[in-house]
Amino acid sequence: MTRSFNPGVAPREVWAWAMYDFANSGFTTVVITAVFNAYFVAEVAGGAVWATFAWSAALAVSYALILVSAPTLGAYADARAAKKRLLAYTTVGCVLGTAGLSLAGPGDLALAIGLLIVANFCFGTGENLIAAFLPELARGRRLGRVSGWGWGLGYLGGIFTLGLCLAYVAWAQARGQPASAFVPVTLWITAGVFALAALPTFLFLRERAQPRATRGRLAALAFRRLLVSLRRARRHRDLGRFLVCVVFYQAGIQTVIALAAIYAQQALGFSTRDTLVLILAVNFAAVAGSLAFGHLQDRLGHVPTIALTLAGWIVVIVLAWSATTSTGFWLAATLAGLCMGAAQAAGRALVGYFSPAGRQAEFFGLWGLAVKLASILGPLTYGAVTWISGGDHRLAILITGLYFVAGLALLAGIDSRRGRRLALTRAATS
């Protein structure tokens, strides 16, 4: 196992890094995917025809804020060796925002949207920061495997948090409590698990970067560096093409993450408990996908592995669109879990594989920008289609499939070996 790590990296430190994925996965699982999204549409927004669009628009605003702030934060993290300190701030923000969402009841639209924007902004920024530690921990040829461990443990964290919430929801529903009574408690559970499970990360993960002297204002330097990075991405043509590919296929993935429970309840009539059980099963499948495909990626190669997962996503969309029974949707959701874990781990590893030494935070910042742009495009497209079509969720999910088709087409022509050779020959000051 230690052969997968860089010199001086102990297994405990890699476990501590991966525990952050365990900690923060409860937020996406409960708030974004399984519970609060459907509660927002049905209860907070009163089931209005524009409710799904309002949900996706709130997420879009939070991702737009990440897009604007990421260059400066990435530059600050590199210049001040502050990835871990910034990660602590975003963790506190997401935990408090999640707990605050428990105050949003039926009709509290402004409160819910405001807290959602804060919590998701902190989550997304923290996701970029924790990813930037990966090349410091894992050897280049083992990035896929170590990234897969992180995603796998992350899905276990989602399972753990969702399992606690499911147990409470079952108990509450057995006593006749409405969603307005038990959903707030699930948010407190999620915030508590996040706070406790993230402690190993801050206790054992080391900040190996060293502070660097900078000239001029950091924000101005950050955006100048972003422009330089974008120009450099053109020279790193495999990285540049992959980042465009990420925008498209992640648009599909982020749509599924943000709107799966809404689709299940609005198109197929799932109850809250049914949805929780479904998402729980999806997370188990995602664990298997992230771990299995992490090893497969190191053997088969980065690009073929991602191509395989995107083909699987296209099948998922067709199955979900054509499903008329819960059984058909269960099949689509299980396959989605496998593909989700695989695609997320593989994509993060390939960015690390293409990252020159000394610029990991910068290059992962570009990856984060691509993912956040995708997080705006995908859900907004879905929400707009449902609004314009008067609530046709099947049409919206079918259109989502076009993002995976485009991603698969863009993946062609990427040479991972060429991209890696270029990353190794480019100095941090190039």
Question: What is this entry, summarized?
Answer:
The chain has 430 residues and is an all-alpha fold. The chain has helices at 11-34, 36-44, 51-80, 83-100, 109-131, 134-137, 143-174, 179-197, 199-204, 218-235, 237-268, 272-300, 302-322, 326-353, 360-388, 393-411, 416-425.
Task: Give a written overview of the molecule.
This protein has 17 helices and no strands. By secondary structure, the chain is mainly α. The protein has one domain: Up-down Bundle (Growth Hormone, Chain: A), CATH 1.20.1250.20. Helix 4 runs antiparallel to helix 8 and helix 11 runs antiparallel to helix 16. It is globular, with a radius of gyration of 20 Å. The chain starts with 10 loop residues before the first helix and ends in a 5-residue tail after the last helix. The mean pLDDT is 85.
The rounded Rg comes to 20 Å
Using the alpha-carbon principal axes, give the shape. Answer: globular
Q: Which parts are unreliable, with pLDDT below 50 for 5 consecutive residues or more?
A: none
Number of helices: 17
Q: How helix-rich are the residues, as a percent range? A: over 70%
Termini separation comes to 33 Å
**Would you give the CATH topology?**
Growth Hormone, Chain: A
Name the helix and strand elements from N-terminus to C-terminus, one letter apiece: HHHHHHHHHHHHHHHHH
Question: Please, what is the CATH homologous superfamily?
Answer: MFS general substrate transporter like domains
Mean pLDDT across all amino acids: 85
By CATH reckoning, the class would read: Mainly Alpha
Q: Specify the CATH architecture.
A: Up-down Bundle
Structural class call reads mainly alpha
- The figure for the number of domains is 1
**Would you count the extended β strands for me?**
0
Strand content range: under 5%
Largest sheet: none
